[in-house]
Amino acid sequence: MKNTPFHKLTPRAIRVWQLGSAFGNLFLFAIPAVYAAIFGYQRFHFWILLSVIVLLLTYYILSIALIPYLSWKKWRYAIDENEIDLKRGVIIHRRTLIPLSRVQHVDTRQGPLLRWYNLASVTISTAATTHEIPALDEVIADRVRHKISTYARLAEDDV
Amino acid sequence: MMSEFQRQHPASAISGAFALIRENFVTILIFLFLGVSNENLDFLWWISGGFIVLLLLGFGSWWRFEYKIENGELHIRRGLFVRKNLYLTKDRIQVIDITAGLVQRLFGLVKVDIQTAGSSSREASIEAVSLQRAKEINRLLRGETDSSDAGESEEISETIDKPQKIFTLPGKELLIAASTSGSFGIAFSILATVFSQAEPLLDESEMYDIIIGLLPAQNDLFTIIVMVVIFAAAAWLLSFISTLLSYGDFKLEVKPDEMVISRGIFEKKRLTIPYNRIQAVHISEGIIRQPLGYASVHIESAGYGDDKGTGSIVLFPLMKRDELLLFLNDILPDYQKLHEGVRPPARAARRYMIRASVVITAITAALYWLLSLNNWVWIIPALSVYWGWLRYRDAAAALSEDVLVIRSRQLAKNTAYIKRKRIQDATISQSWIQCFRNLCTVTVHVASGDQGKSFSVTDLEAAEGRFLLKELKGHGMSYGDLQDIPAPEFTVKLPGWPHSLIGSDQAAAN
């Protein structure tokens, strides 16, 4: 019985996700803005607008203050010569097994924000789905990618 | 001579134009109606203009389509606006299908479909060439097998391979399949689109007045009901005829390492499925077909299938439920058929019923208050609760040495057989409520066409879900929370159809 340790993502992921939601979720406030532009903000429209804005603001604050931390806390991944094992999810816990013999190709990706923090994400494609291990340290991401593709070559099988 | 670039027979311009019409049928209809209702545009101009554009496009794509074969490689240059160069090498080509559609038959030509495992092979079909030319293409791309790939059988499916078994669809089954076909809904929506476009022109026509005059002018409700009935009947007729045309003359040939499906009355369709591309088999018992004791058999394949993008193929359109297991044994002997499985626990039943009915009930209630409908409307939520209970009753999962079976119901009851080594990934997920109730959802993906298809069972006992995942891992390697899970109690026998072959199935499994 071999024990494969589960790894966490780098803690810097939290900061990246916070920034990402801070900018990315700003567009949500376009909804009340558009509504106000169409219907104005008199009488009962005011209350509708107020409730929508309160809801959005709550979500916005949560998406920065709480959700990145929680999802970092929940994320675990493990790789051995037979399969990749991913655990994640804040509201819905997911645990996924990907047999290495099914892996078609592995890539690393790096958006501008990730590059700024020297992070990268690893995407694993099978013939049916694509999975992502987000926000790993550049060096580790490369190592993970290399490890997966080595194992996948060993486990060469048909589709 | 094949190493020079060649064009197809000019008839492909016509079949190309037809393909365009087929793909954009609804759009064209809408345009037509717009054109008709537009006063200052003459209808004939509109039609002929559209026709000329289509012919030009067809001609252009014919002119731009060139192919040649050199050193066992098919090179296609095509594309009217975007130039594409496709290269298909001989050893990547898995299937070459030679068929003849309506246009091809008129000119005595054939169409050559070339399949590789990649998705770009969809574009590599040569629409119209002479049979002689097609045979030559076939010979050059598959014919002389090198000694290196003698392991793969590369016979031309036309002549050399004698099929072991042939299944056909009897007329009675075809009629039942056509009258219970699921494309009913699609036909309905097409009709609705056409009708909504056609209404302004019907309004002005005398025909409309005549029809309305015929109807007893009771009240609006009656008119609406009559309209709906007429509509439904028309939609049913449409789907009846289209199913009849596309599944008439159905033939399934089983060969040593591939299956060939040919179907269609005017438009012959032919599909070759090598066994090694089959990812999953699923049997669907439709909501009308199940009470009649019928089901249809589908296959997910890793190449392309019946519909664009998905690898779903109708392997057999309609079959009596008690013949299913014998049929599957005949065509897929390497799948174990009978399994001990697990079902969602009793406490999940309530969740199933709530999930199925909550939205429908809310909508019904809102409409009830707003429109002060009569009390009969509450039948709908009651039906949805019953539907939820059916979904609970039909959900099950089983795992044996090399096959995973997942049974679930959307509207139709689906039983899927998935080879374990074909599973691309397996997931167990738990929402907060599921955590609290100790339940989980198990999902697996298989490849299908150039994307994936998922099969899942909701609200299994959490420990059972983990057990399934651990078993799927295999290799005896487990760690963390997957360690030492006791085997669950098996409460259900899958697939649960009548059968008389337990003995022979055991024999096949050994």
TrEMBL record, chain A:
The name of this protein is: YdbS-like PH domain-containing protein
Q: Which InterPro entries match?
A: YdbS-like_PH (IPR005182)
Q: Where is the YdbS-like PH domain?
A: 72-147
Pfam families, per this entry? bPH_2
**PANTHER family per UniProt:** UPF0699 TRANSMEMBRANE PROTEIN YDBS (PTHR34473), UPF0699 TRANSMEMBRANE PROTEIN YDBT (PTHR34473:SF2)
* Residues annotated as transmembrane: 16-38, 44-67
Q: Which UniProt keywords apply?
A: Membrane, Transmembrane, Transmembrane helix
Span of the secretion signal? Answer: none
For this protein's source organism, the top of the classification is: Bacteria, Pseudomonadati, Balneolota, Balneolia, Balneolales
